[in-house]
Description:
The protein has helices spanning 2-19, 47-51, 62-67, 69-85, 90-100, 115-119, 145-155, 181-189, 243-254; strands spanning 24-28, 104-109, 124-126, 129-136, 142-144, 167-171, 193-197, 216-220, 235-239. Strand 2 (104-109), helix 6 and strand 3 form a beta-alpha-beta unit. It contains 9 helices and 9 strands. The chain has 2 domains: 1-36 and 88-128 and 177-258, TPP-binding domain (Rossmann fold), CATH 3.40.50; 39-85 and 131-171, SIR2/SIRT2 'Small Domain' (2-Layer Sandwich). It is of the alpha/beta class and 258 residues long. The structure holds carba-nicotinamide-adenine-dinucleotide. Carba-nicotinamide-adenine-dinucleotide (CNA) binds at residues 29-31, 33-35, 38, 40-43, 46, 110-113, 128, 198-200, 202-203, 221-225, 242-243.
Amino acid sequence: MSMNVTFSSSVARCADMIQSSVRIVLLSGAGLSTSAGIPDFRGPEGLYRKLGIENPERIFDIGVFERDPSFYYGFHKEFLRQVEAVKPTAAHRFFARLEEQGKLDGIVTQNIDALHQKAGSSKVLEIHGSIWRSHCTRCGKGYSYEASARKVEAEGVPHCDSCRAVLKPDVVFFGENVMQFDACQELVARSDLLFVVGSSLVVTPAAWLPSLCPGKIVVVNKGEISRSYLPSSRVALHVEEDIDTFFTALAEKLGLSV
Ligand code: CNA
């Protein structure tokens, strides 16, 4: 009972904040896509726990990739299969509706699954890149998603048509620079309401972004998050609920159909 009261009052407070804000920004993480069927890294059902690898961050370690790309591509093949099968969640659709209403200034996503775009969002900054393009690690030749996916299927580790070097998807690995960071910083710095949804806030520099928000911050995340860089005085609301449950209720409160 008391939990329901807390839940509905969180929904109501959040709806009020949305109504009184004009430049809403979302920082999203893997938790937004778990209900679509893509496991996150660090959540209870996350890949790190499932794969049982001692140091699973090695999957996205650029040094490991350069030494042995087959380690990454074993994961990649499975990931592509999942991404192709999944559909956006209610939470993805919620933020697409906010953009339609002219309320949402943009999204910074750490996800590489393109579910925001599939849901209809167009103002999306993919700070960790995406799997939609690949390039040759030697000559730089670019490959479309379809071309590289065909090669992964046929060769396991895909190679360049021109120079035979290994291809790498345009996903940001640990040890590489993130993408469009200036634009991400500018977006957050002019927001009056920042949603941080489904992120453990442990991966920098994405985890630094909330500190640039001059307005209010709403965190929606069930499970542990790092508070190292989170400006706690600006966190107006921390909702520890299932993401889809919360955004479905919020949409209903605001009269948005998701
Ligand atoms: P993370 O570190 O895995 O954290 C996810 C957070 O979401 C955890 O705190 C979970 O407890 C929480 N969470 C998961 N499901 C739910 C739910 N249904 N309701 C509420 N909370 C939930 O993910 P981050 O994004 O913070 O980590 C950064 C990495 C993970 C980024 O570089 C991503 O590219 C990378 N990643 C992306 C995907 C994807 O594209 N979908 C999948 C897995 C990892």
